[in-house]
Design brief:
The complex is a heterodimer of chains A (397) and B (301). Chain A has 397 residues and is α/β, with parallel strands linked by helices. Helices cover 37% and strands 16% of the residues of chain A. Chain A is globular and about 60 Å long. Chain B is mainly alpha-helical and 301 residues long. In chain B, helix 3 runs antiparallel to helix 9. The radius of gyration of chain B is 25 Å and the shape is globular. The chains are: A alpha/beta (397), B mainly alpha (301).
Amino acid sequence: MEHDHNPETLRILAPEGHPLTRRRFISLAAAGAGAMTIGSTLEAGAASLSKLEAAARASLRTAGKTTKNLYLYTWGQYDNPTTFTAWQKGTNIPIQIGSYNSNEAMIAKLELAKGTAGYDIVVPTGGYIPEMVAKGLLIPLNKSLIPNFAHLDPALLNFAWDKGNKYTIPKDFGTTGFIYDKTLITRKMETWADFVAAAALPQVSGRVSILDDPNDVLAIALWNEGVDWNTLDKAKLRYANNWLIQHLAPHVSNLDSYPGGTGGLTGGTYVLSQAWNGDARQALLKDPTKFKWVVPFPKSEIWVDNWALAKGAKNVDTAHAFFDYILDPTVSANEMIYTGYNTAVANVRRYLPNNLAQESVIFLTKAQEKRLVPYLVNSTNNLRTQLYDNFKAAIAS
Amino acid sequence: MLGRGSLRSFTGLTYAWFALWFLAPTGIMLLYAFGRTASVNQSGLVKLNHLGFGNFFQALRYPTGPVLVISLENAVLATALCGLIAYPVAYFIARKLGPRVRVLVLLLVVLPFWTDYLLRMLGWRIFLSPLGLLFNAMNAVGWHVTYVSLLDTRTAVMIGLVYNYVPLFILPLAVVLERIDPQLLQAADDLGAKPWTIFRTITFPISMTGVVAGTVLVFVPMLGDYVTPTLMGGARGLMIGSLVASEFNEGQNWSLGAAMAIVLIVVIVLIVLACWLLAGGTRYLLNRSRRRSLERVWAPA
């Protein structure tokens, strides 16, 4: 699934057989329904193409021996097309892009190719990094080639999955919460317990979606019970799953990681959805008076997607130049406008052209950040998948 | 003109193609099913140094059973619905239309395949959503209904399955019906058989090959389908394919996923085999009783 990059074809490269792209989804569904949810996207890119090109040229000067190619393997529609256009114009180095829709698929492909997949850059989510390092799928970064690394917010470095950021650079981050139709749900909505209780309301039951991810689903019960969602305690995981089967399963109608982007919320199919903040924002942009977004108590998730160098990369220095470019605050702002997720570049807000709509969903408050916990894939992965299957079977029967 | 040799090499090519793209992957999967998935901090996908049946035991544990039953129910019902819809349509196309119009209508039948399948499914979601076209249109003509959740139910799965697979039933049926020798029907008519009798004793028995072809063509992929149930039925429309997929995806457990896929293949083969035996047996019994009745008619009193 590689595509020669040029600005005209870029828009179609993502959903190659996959309706669901990662954190964001320019929804064909929503567009078809006459709902262009991403109002600010299009005018944003044009703002400062020359500035972006200058940043691209600057990044070449600091990199070592750059080559004339760059291969990127990433989530579909996860970068501003103008970011690539400007890079290409500024450096004369074409970027070729392949896309995937799950960390697992990306890992399997790299693993099977044994370093011959041909990709230079991949974009794993934090929790999968230890696994990729252990499997030897990543190669360490040379930070002396990335002067703009200094722009990164220290709060988003040194996560447990990559101490000292030897292998990865945070790309952007977000959280998991829920969004609901406040015209139908008028009760207090602050905690995960509230989420489960609201799902049982007669006007809500059967119109509830949760993320299609075993860990995020289990987390609802674990957080509610005050258990760390990284727990290795199998009894606690089983208990949590049974609790979900009893209290949540009867009311869930779909496992949908994009209730905002794919139009499930705006089309009225769901009135209560567990969601990632950037995706929830899609629904809020469309109908700000109808929906409300909550980062729930007592705990929730912080996830970080990261730039990394794939084993077998042939254009290592060029990739470093690209990392430097992407960490330039102007470029970072350009990315943020498109993805609707906060990048890890500190003070990126200053570089945004205007105030963004529904900003409070993108920028987390300090109080919110305090209750967010990252997840690392661990040895209970098989059990968690099995429990998830049980949960799914309970919904279906 | 193709010589005999080039024809043979062409046949060889198709076998090679089949071996490369079907047998080889299936063989690899079979091998994986006996292996052991590498742990998250181990390199490699599936370890093949200790082969065993462990994955198959795991593949058969809860919830495979109940989900397989649900999938079977869905596939059987949807196949039956496809047949009921496809037969009159195919009959009409093959017997009531002139050759030119027939080609055009057959083209219309396959026309949906020109659009990406996922787009069509997403289109259905928009159409059936509470604020979507269907309910808006009903409201617009003054037919106010409170929204009943059609999406994310087994009914929605059924709509999706029938919609997607019915062309695959129509095509083989139309071909078989078209090939029935009109002289046979003419002869029956001349001998005074009523249209219904002609249909029951001539057309339908001959078209059985088409019905069987359609049934297999539709039922087999339906049972393993995971995109249609996921997109139309959401969490409530779960079918077995989704469990297999979750082992490959979230579970990163390729050996267990492979074992589940093999179990599914075995189930499908057994079902097709059972149907084939059943059909063969019925035909044998039918022929025998028919022969008997013929013998009774012709036997000198």
